[in-house]
Amino acid sequence: MLNAQWLETFVTLCEEGHFTRAAARLNMTQPGVSQQLKKLEDQIGQPLITRDGKGFTLTPAGEAVRDHGRRRCEEERRLREAFDGDDAGKGPVSLACSGSLAMLIYPRVLDLMQQSEGLNVKLEAAPQASVLEGVLSGLYDIGIADHKPTHPRLDGDLIGSDELCLLVPIGEPSAPGYADLERLGFIAHPDGFAYADELLSANFADAYPGLERLRIRSFINQIGQIPEPVARGIGYTILPRSGVNTYPRREALACVKLAHPVHHELWLVRRRGKVLAARTRHLMAAVIETVGELAQLS
């Protein structure tokens, strides 16, 4: 690899066309310029200039080295601009998480984009496996998982937890028994069966017969609409606190206080060793703050 300092001196000499002017521009002595030129020629193994009185002309090798030096200078200039341009309010950044968390986080994302016109945020609701695979492949800059990542190329920070809420209509008993829930019927959704098995077995162990015998009143796969039947008195459901908090008619829902509450950990996941851009760190800070507010609602 060519010596960077000697190459810079040579490019400057080519641009100035004169040893004295090149020395003045580089804050060097004229013999210093000549010495670095000689070292570069020794490294190349052939002369780079042909002297012509007080001037000089470039040899073919000199022209090639000059062009190479100019390209390197341009690359370094663009690199410095990239460093200087690492602005928290500019550029694309992507995040993946569960649907309920996406609904909770998106208003904060909109706030960030309103404050920074150059910020472009992609927020995608995805299953847990897709979140981890996407961060690993580089599809997403960061993700939120419900468990600590075990892959050796992923890092994660525990940033909070999301409580599972047993939601019943307003007016139902504040401490319903399993018979009360069966009377209402379960409002099922794609994650609801796993939530039900986890929460009901922990709190109604003697009465809960298992998923196979769960009375299903309705099924819906639109995360924002899952609480609606409960608000209308049609049934009960189980959702993370993040999904409850984004429902516009929260006052029509009652979250039952349980003897054995269930919380899912929330881990902010990123590629191990990846240097994060300022915009990604900015989004991470907003996500951590938003998730932290869930604890205040539990």
Automatic annotation (TrEMBL):
PANTHER family: HTH-TYPE TRANSCRIPTIONAL REGULATOR, TRANSCRIPTIONAL REGULATOR LYSR FAMILY. Belongs to the LysR transcriptional regulatory family. Residues 2-59 form the HTH lysR-type domain. GO terms for molecular function: DNA-binding transcription factor activity; transcription cis-regulatory region binding. Pfam families: HTH_1 (PF00126), LysR_substrate (PF03466). This is HTH-type transcriptional regulator TtuA. Coiled coil: none annotated. The keyword DNA-binding applies. PROSITE patterns: HTH_LYSR. Keywords: DNA-binding, Transcription, Transcription regulation. Transcriptional regulator of the ttuABCDE tartrate utilization operon. The keyword Transcription applies.
